[in-house]
């Protein structure tokens, strides 16, 4: 019998119950027991859903109040010294409040301390807390939460499989700290006994299977890490439980031989990202091993083609017999919880989708289909899926010939500005009349309660469209007046009309669909609702032109238009799976190109195209980077390149790791790029200097995430450092990122200081 299971299930709850309870606990409105109760209820509900769907195992270990990587760090006793109270150091349980302090710096109990760093989990939009590792660090079993959860599931009568991030991937995701340089791989030996203890404690409870997640296996591993896998698993393989080694987010590639031969009882592979690896895995898998095939897409919202999967997996079923398991490709953490709640979607569209709850059914049905023990319900599901997918394939919603025709007509010259940068810079200097060290901001000004209230009233039908637009114009006028008073050289309209930089554009483009409750955890209690790109993308009409034109009418200074770039529009959405991502991105680029040209025609002389997601789109394997960067850069250029020399193209990216992608950044050929630098003390400009980056740069001079007002001296000093690396004629002065999360009472003095810093710099240079 084929075993059906999942790598993990979303924990936030269909109503974001986890978010509500956790935030209430932080505010002191819910006590610890109340919070723990919500956790128990959610786990019970999610396990029950897995059983009801007919899965053979329920997965325990995917729950966390904040982050599962954090919980593992806590369980391993890897709590940085600044959080560890005396008691905990002595060997007791690490308290939940300690975990919350590691995550966000503070908690109802315990001293505030600097939070741990957070970063994206592989190529997902989920953020984990980076384990802090020290030379010679000791580990100990410091939390029994996982065991309690196992006991809960067993008490409810469920057949339990436990999931846990494996030791190599935990180390892989960690960061070496402390003054002495060391290799974090050296910690493995100390780590393994704690894993051993965990596995033994699970075995004592009668747990048969433990899934150790090692997604690091889909990345380029140095030889030493590959060897460490062998060493570690030859130890762990002796544990008194069966281990399922799980790889996902990509193919095993050159780690395939390593992965199939590790001495464990089973292997899970991602057949969505790499269907072609099935053949090789089947050929090389030792005869004693279970193979779990991740056939249902755990990263996207499309309904599975059950008929096709039955066919594709039939061979594996024949060869493996009872050693075959089926599952989603990865944890369902990355998709929304339940499609049933999307009552607002039109039924045809809804029939094309599957969220986590629906994917449970798909997995269970697929297992029964493969075994030839399909029930009536399975047969109906199979047929419904086939019909829905057929309808989707043929739908005019997907294919709009005008879009394809236009894309086919794109020529190489459409990616080229009329003149090279030096010539454009001269034309722009004439048309914009900016001083040395021009000042600007990144786009958004504070999204005040009043602005949000107006938008809610509009949605609720309590405020007319005209009244709402008038309110937004007032906000724009206000923002422009303040910028004039502050003396900013290149003002912005302030983006009051935007709820979100992707949603705002997606709502105005054809091809995008929005869900009502398609929430996905981003980090901690933060959830996002990514739009779904269903069909060919095009722009029915101008999106931002009236706002920018109005803003420009209020000032003689050059107003900067503000758009979200094609790669970011793609990256922060669920993308259709029936054509290459690249094609979808090019469609978006063409739609945005029209907006750029309309802005120019409306008298806007500078246009910023934000690409904060460019870097995170990098594939997990370095060998695939160039291919991605080539089309990503082409899409940006297609968006931007239609304008005249006089029109200045800006872009913005809010991160500071440019070394890997500096050539691509230069290839964007934006006239100006604004970046995050203040926290790295301008060191990141080294990458730009070494590359001899040819165009203009605005290195952010203050961190907008902090409420502190930056000092003039401090910003001048930072810019002087910048001036050592970049010729002053090519430097701009601006904050790190948009100001929407700040209040005006912080923004005004900060910008006043920034303008004063620029004035001082002009006098000096
Ligand atoms: N223009 C956007 C803003 O200022 C950019 C946001 C971002 O980079 N994430 O809010
Ligand atoms: Zn930013």
UniProtKB/TrEMBL annotation:
Domain Cobalamin-independent methionine synthase MetE C-terminal/archaeal spans what residues?
Answer: 437-759
Superkingdom of the source? Bacteria
Q: List positions binding Zn(2+) 1.
A: 652, 654, 676, 737
| UniProt keyword Amino-acid biosynthesis present | yes
Q: Which InterPro entries match?
A: Cbl-indep_Met_Synth_N, Cobalamin-indep_Met_synthase, Met_Synth_C/arc, UROD/MetE-like_sf
Its ancestry begins with: Bacteria, Pseudomonadati, Pseudomonadota, Gammaproteobacteria, Oceanospirillales
Q: Which organism is it from?
A: Halomonas campaniensis
The residues listed in the UniProt record as binding Zn(2+), with positions renumbered to this chain, are 652, 654, 676, 737
* The protein's name: 5-methyltetrahydropteroyltriglutamate--homocysteine methyltransferase
Assigned keywords, A-Z: Amino-acid biosynthesis, Metal-binding, Methionine biosynthesis, Methyltransferase, Repeat, Transferase, Zinc
Q: Which cofactor does it need?
A: Zn(2+)
Catalytic activity of the protein: 5-methyltetrahydropteroyltri-L-glutamate + L-homocysteine = tetrahydropteroyltri-L-glutamate + L-methionine
Q: Which residues bind 5-methyltetrahydropteroyltri-L-glutamate?
A: 16-19, 120, 125, 526-527, 572, 616
Top-level EC class, please?
Answer: transferase
- Biological function: Catalyzes the transfer of a methyl group from 5-methyltetrahydrofolate to homocysteine resulting in methionine formation.
């Amino acid at each position: 019998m084929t075993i059906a299971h999942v790598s993990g299930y979303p924990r936030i709850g269909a109503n974001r119950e986890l978010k509500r309870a956790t935030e209430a606990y932080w505010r002191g409105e819910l006590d610890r027991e109340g919070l723990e109760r919500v956790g128990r209820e959610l786990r019970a509900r999610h396990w029950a859903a897995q059983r009801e769907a007919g899965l053979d195992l329920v997965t325990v270990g995917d729950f966390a109040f904040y982050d599962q990587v954090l919980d593992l760090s806590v369980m391993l006793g890897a709590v940085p010294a600044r959080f560890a109270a005396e008691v905990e150091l002595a060997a007791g349980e690490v308290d939940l409040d300690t975990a919350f302090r590691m995550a966000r710096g503070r908690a109802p109990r315990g001293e505030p301390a600097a939070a741990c760093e957070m970063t994206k989990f592989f190529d997902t939009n989920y953020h984990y807390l980076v384990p802090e590792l020290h030379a010679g660090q000791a580990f100990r079993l410091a939390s029994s939460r996982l065991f309690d959860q196992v006991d809960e599931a067993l008490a409810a009568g469920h057949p339990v499989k436990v999931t846990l991030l494996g030791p190599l991937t935990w180390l892989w995701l960690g960061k070496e700290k402390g003054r002495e340089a060391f290799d974090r791989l050296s910690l493995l030996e100390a780590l393994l006994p704690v894993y051993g203890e965990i596995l033994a404690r699970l075995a004592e409870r009668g747990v048969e299977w433990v899934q150790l997640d090692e997604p690091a296996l889909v990345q380029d591993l140095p030889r030493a890490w590959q060897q460490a896998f062998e060493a570690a698993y030859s130890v762990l393989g002796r544990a008194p439980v069966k281990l399922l080694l799980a790889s996902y987010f990509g193919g095993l590639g050159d780690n395939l031989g390593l992965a199939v031969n590790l001495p464990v009882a089973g292997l899970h592979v991602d057949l969505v990202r790499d269907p072609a690896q099935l053949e090789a895995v089947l050929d090389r898998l030792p005869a004693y091993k279970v193979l779990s095939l991740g056939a249902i897409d755990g990263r996207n919202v499309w309904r599975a083609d059950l008929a096709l999967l039955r066919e594709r997996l039939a061979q594996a079923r024949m060869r493996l017999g009872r050693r075959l398991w089926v599952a989603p490709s990865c944890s369902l953490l990355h998709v929304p919880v339940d499609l049933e709640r999307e009552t607002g979607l039109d039924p045809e569209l809804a029939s094309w989708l599957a969220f986590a709850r629906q994917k449970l059914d798909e997995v269970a049905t697929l297992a029964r289909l493969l075994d030839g023990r399909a029930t009536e319900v399975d047969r109906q599901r199979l047929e419904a899926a086939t019909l829905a997918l057929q309808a989707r394939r043929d739908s005019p919603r997907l294919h709009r010939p005008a879009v394809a025709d236009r894309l086919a007509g794109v020529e190489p010259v459409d990616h080229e500005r009329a003149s090279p940068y030096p010539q454009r810079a001269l034309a722009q200097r004439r048309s914009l009349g900016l001083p040395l060290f021009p000042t600007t901001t990144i786009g958004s000004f504070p999204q005040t309660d009043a602005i949000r209230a107006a938008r809610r009233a509009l949605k609720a039908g309590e405020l007319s469209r005209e009244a709402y637009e008038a309110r937004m114009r007032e906000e724009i006028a206000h923002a422009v007046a303040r910028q004039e008073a502050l003396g900013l050289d290149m003002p912005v309209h302030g983006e009051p009309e935007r709820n979100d930089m992707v949603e705002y554009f997606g709502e105005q483009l054809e091809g995008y669909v929005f869900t009502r409750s398609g929430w996905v955890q981003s980090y901690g209690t933060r959830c996002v609702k990514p739009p779904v790109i269903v069909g060919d993308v095009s722009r029915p009409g101008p999106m931002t032109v009236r706002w920018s034109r109005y803003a420009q009418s209020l000032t003689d200074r050059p107003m900067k238009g503000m758009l979200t770039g094609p790669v970011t529009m793609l990256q922060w959405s669920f993308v259709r799976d029936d054509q290459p991502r690249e094609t979808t991105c090019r469609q978006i680029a063409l739609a945005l190109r029209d907006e750029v040209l309309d802005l120019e025609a409306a008298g806007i002389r500078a246009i910023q195209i934000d690409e904060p997601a460019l870097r995170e789109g990098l594939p997990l394997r370095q060998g695939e980077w160039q291919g991605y960067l080539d089309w990503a850069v082409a899409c940006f250029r297609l968006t931007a390149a239609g304008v005249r020399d006089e029109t200045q193209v800006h872009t913005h990216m809010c991160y500071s790791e440019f070394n890997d992608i500096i050539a691509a950044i230069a290839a964007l050929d934006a006239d100006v790029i604004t970046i995050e630098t203040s926290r790295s003390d301008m060191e990141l400009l080294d990458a730009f200097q070494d590359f001899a980056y040819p165009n203009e740069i605005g290195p952010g001079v203050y961190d907008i995430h902090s409420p502190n007002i930056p000092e003039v001296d401090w910003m001048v000093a930072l810019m002087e450092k910048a001036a050592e690396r970049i010729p002053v004629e090519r430097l701009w002065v601006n904050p790190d990122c948009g100001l929407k999360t700040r209040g005006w009472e912080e923004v005004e003095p900060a910008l006043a200081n920034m303008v004063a810093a620029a004035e001082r710099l002009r006098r000096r240079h």
